[in-house]
Amino acid sequence: MTEGRLLAVLGAGVMGETVLSGLLRAGWTPDQIIATDRRPDRQLELHEAYGVRMVSNAEAAAQADTIVVVVKPQDMRALLTEIAPVLKPGALVVSLAAGVDIASIEAQLPEGTAVVRVMPNTPAQVDEGMAAISPGAHSEPHHLERVTEILSATGRVLTVPESYQDAVTAISGSGPAYLFFVVEAMIEAGVHLGLPRDIATELVVQTMLGSAKLLRETGEHPTVLRERVTSPGGTTAAAIRQLEDHKVRAAFIGAMEAARDRSRQLAEDARRNGSV
Ligand SMILES: NC(=O)C1=CN([C@@H]2O[C@H](COP(=O)(O)OP(=O)(O)OC[C@H]3O[C@@H](n4cnc5c(N)ncnc54)[C@H](OP(=O)(O)O)[C@@H]3O)[C@@H](O)[C@H]2O)C=CC1
Ligand SMILES: O=C(O)[C@@H]1CCC=N1
């Protein structure tokens, strides 16, 4: 399905490399992918690691059928300005930038350009990603199918209205960081309780993995699974009581509201300072 199609990753940082390496793991060949980055040392590093051709943004835009834009929101305007005049006719532009809305991207590109907005996450590095995609004004079902095919290489894909994207960013885009934060906190707690750090780490990581698998494979509601662990008058009830006393549930709601608001703000900042 990918034959005859050239895909360009523009801005191969953390998330750009995640996309690029995932496609190669899924069977794409290095000659089907080109990439750009602004630092020469990074370009060399990626070429040596993956064998893909590192080119300029203009070359990538002129050659590729699918342009995956993975720069930070504040770098979007400069990049779109660079690629707009040379964009291959009919090319699909896929933006992975948090906050930046499709209309702003379309306004920077030639009239009629198909744009799809995506919010991915880093577990794609181990093929367990979660990506939400939204169509632009000129994207057709085959464009969404192409993006779904690309992202399915590294995990699950959902199509959502663009109006959901700030909330999606707060949940699954930033979500891995909250879970790593919980893991860090539990490991530190284990050390506090006198466990060697390596043992605490093994206990926590496997507990996180096993719990995620239990949720996915049983399809049970998390409340049911939590209640099964919570013996009357037992250890778990004592721990959950502490979490409730410290308003951890409310803290999560507050944290995700802050992430959603920041996503909105990134788009506004970008518009105000002319980034998109
Ligand atoms: N990291 C994550 O978990 C997620 C990130 N995203 C989104 O992905 C995007 C990238 O994030 P992330 O990968 O974390 O950031 P990075 O800074 O790691 O990657 C961005 C890369 O793009 C390069 N770059 C900037 N401008 C240009 C340009 N004009 N031409 C070529 N390369 C350029 C940067 O170079 P330099 O280092 O010199 O700045 C950097 O290497 C953001 O918009 C973010 O919102 C979305 C979901 C999850
Ligand atoms: O922190 C950020 O802005 C990006 C978007 C979602 C995850 N990382």
TrEMBL record:
The keyword Lipoprotein does not apply. InterPro entries: 6-PGluconate_DH-like_C_sf (IPR008927), NAD(P)-bd_dom_sf (IPR036291), P5C_Rdtase_cat_N (IPR028939), P5CR-like_CS (IPR053790), P5CR_dimer (IPR029036), Pyrroline-COOH_reductase (IPR000304). The lineage of its organism: Bacteria, Bacillati, Actinomycetota, Actinomycetes, Propionibacteriales. Keywords: Amino-acid biosynthesis, Cytoplasm, NADP, Oxidoreductase, Proline biosynthesis. Pathway: Amino-acid biosynthesis; L-proline biosynthesis; L-proline from L-glutamate 5-semialdehyde: step 1/1. One of its GO terms (molecular function) is pyrroline-5-carboxylate reductase activity. Signal peptide: none annotated. This is Pyrroline-5-carboxylate reductase. NCBIfam families: proC. It catalyses: L-proline + NAD(+) = (S)-1-pyrroline-5-carboxylate + NADH + 2 H(+); L-proline + NADP(+) = (S)-1-pyrroline-5-carboxylate + NADPH + 2 H(+).
